[in-house]
């Protein structure tokens, strides 16, 4: 059946959790409904509609604020074990602070959680998936050290309110958003390359750790939940096995994997030595007094070390790495600090997103790398997905999903600690600045329709079958999949 490279039948355990993910800004819509405050993404896309590929922002999105019962129905159709969604900070705390708690907003998540539990679907809640309250952005946002306290206060509201029912918490989705927000086209789109991005990163990590310690101190005994953080961990291979390319890849991995994992999972904590010394050296050469990479104090290192019950792995693709040959990056910048050139193989199948190609062995290699470096950490794959054109016959997504799941089975066989797997995404949504021009859904959403009608794609049926059987069948085809999933 699943003979990819030999004839062994590999299967996922009964307790391996299969699920799907979304995030608040990308699916909820209702951006100003029932007392919700403005997020930095609302502000950004309202003032800069020109940056959105197809002009569609998150004002209405997939309208999950009103359609959540249909969403849960889809989860039941799929037969998933868990649903990963995020809470919109400005929906529950419109000012960003705890002075005003928006009861309507809090009730929305109560309703969603209760609906999930009614059908035995485990909620996995992300506290922060990119949508900072605009009020807090105006006060400096993630570049300000004060955000650590703001985030702790926000986390407390959520742990208090939902802790009795939510057992899986993810503090922050992808701290690497700092590099896209302070040197790219993600909100707040402030150009502070090589400076603001590193400041943001430090505060994101501390906010995570502070929320983790809060749960550990005040809720863990009572509620017995676990708290993790999701990192964007794509794998960097040497372009080929030339020593200089292997070395460049190692540096790239230090900056894109070690940067986040070292402070939390390594024995001594802190950012990787190579990262610290490279940024210091460049900073001095560039005329700065100190390194542009902020230091972590001994107390901060201690706070961060061990501050996760599990690692959330968001893995989509891989890259090939060579040393930088031409001076093509801005100075200073994260890219210039790393000093490598990345590309992807022409042999890897291309999705609808420029950055996303299929290279399933990458997830296997990633797991071997983190197992060796961080001694087999407990993980949960919290995002993996593929973008396509609109349309129900998403054969390329089916291929991607199957090949990656087989690679995951190989990783498990070789010792990787993986509690579950989560497809990005349950349904089409607003892909940030790509709008709805890139579709990641197992369900297609008709954005032209009033109810944002959802229809299962071929991949939804294949995923349902994988969840049922706990194996990956190379050739299984549903009959009549265009008619109904149930
Ligand atoms: C995920 O990040 C996000 O968590 C999720 O919200 C999103 O829907 C999903 O990606 C799909 O887009 O445009 O060339 O500058 C995955 C890691 C890092 C991938 C930033 C896209 C931007 C590349 N992402 N990257 S580019």
UniProtKB/TrEMBL annotation:
GO molecular function, one term: beta-glucosidase activity
Keywords from the named record: Glycoprotein, Glycosidase, Hydrolase, Signal
Database matches in InterPro entries: GH, GH_1_N_CS, Glyco_hydro_1
Superkingdom in the source lineage: Eukaryota
GO biological process assignments: carbohydrate metabolic process
Keyword Hydrolase among record annotations: yes
Subunit structure: Homodimer.
Family: Belongs to the glycosyl hydrolase 1 family.
Protein name: Myrosinase 1
Organism: Pieris macdunnoughi
């Amino acid at each position: 059946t699943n003979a990819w490279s030999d004839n062994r039948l590999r299967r996922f355990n009964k307790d391996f959790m299969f699920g799907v993910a979304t995030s608040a800004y990308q699916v909820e819509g209702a951006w100003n409904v029932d007392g919700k405050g403005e997020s930095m993404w609302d502000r950004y896309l309202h003032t800069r509609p020109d940056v959105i590929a197809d002009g569609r922002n998150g004002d209405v999105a997939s309208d999950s604020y009103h359609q959540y019962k249909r969403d849960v129905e889809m989860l039941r159709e799929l037969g998933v074990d868990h649903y990963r969604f995020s809470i919109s900070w400005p929906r529950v705390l419109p000012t960003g602070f705890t002075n005003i708690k928006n009861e309507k907003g809090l009730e929305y998540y109560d309703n969603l959680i209760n609906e999930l539990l009614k059908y035995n679907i485990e909620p996995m809640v992300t506290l922060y998936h990119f949508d900072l309250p605009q009020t807090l952005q105006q006060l400096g946002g993630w570049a300000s050290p004060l955000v650590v306290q703001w985030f702790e206060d926000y986390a407390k509201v959520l742990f208090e309110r939902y802790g009795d029912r939510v057992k899986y918490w993810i503090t922050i989705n992808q701290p690497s958003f700092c590099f896209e927000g302070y040197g790219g086209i993600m909100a707040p789109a402030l150009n502070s390359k090589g400076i603001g991005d590193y400041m943001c990163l430090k505060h994101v990590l501390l906010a995570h750790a502070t929320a983790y310690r809060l749960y550990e101190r005040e809720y863990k005994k009572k509620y017995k939940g676990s708290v993790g953080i999701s990192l964007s961990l794509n794998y960097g291979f040497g372009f080929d096995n030339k020593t200089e390319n292997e070395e460049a890849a190692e540096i790239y991995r230090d900056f894109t994997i070690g940067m986040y994992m070292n402070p939390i999972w390594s024995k001594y904590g802190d950012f990787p030595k190579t990262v610290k010394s490279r940024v210091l050296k460049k900073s001095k050469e560039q005329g700065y007094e100190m390194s542009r990479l902020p230091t972590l104090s001994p107390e901060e290192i201690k706070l961060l070390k061990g501050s996760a019950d599990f690692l959330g792995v968001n893995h989509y693709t891989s890259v090939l790495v060579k040393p930088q040959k031409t001076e093509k990056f801005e100075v200073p910048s994260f890219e210039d600090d790393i000093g490598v050139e990345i590309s992807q193989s022409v042999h890897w199948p291309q999705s609808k997103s420029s950055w996303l190609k299929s290279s399933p062995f990458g997830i296997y290699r990633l797991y071997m790398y983190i197992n060796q470096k961080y001694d087999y950490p407990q993980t949960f794959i919290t995002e993996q997905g593929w973008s396509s054109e609109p349309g129900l016959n998403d054969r390329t997504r089916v291929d991607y999903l199957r090949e990656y799941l087989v690679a995951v089975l190989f990783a498990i066989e070789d010792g990787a600690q993986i509690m579950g797997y989560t497809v990005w995404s349950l349904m089409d949504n607003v892909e940030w600045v790509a709008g709805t021009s890139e579709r990641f859904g197992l369900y297609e959403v008709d954005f032209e329709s009033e109810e944002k009608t959802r229809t299962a794609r071929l991949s939804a049926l294949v995923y349902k079958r994988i969840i049922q059987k706990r194996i990956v069948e190379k050739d299984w085809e549903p009959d009549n999949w265009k008619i109904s999933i149930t």
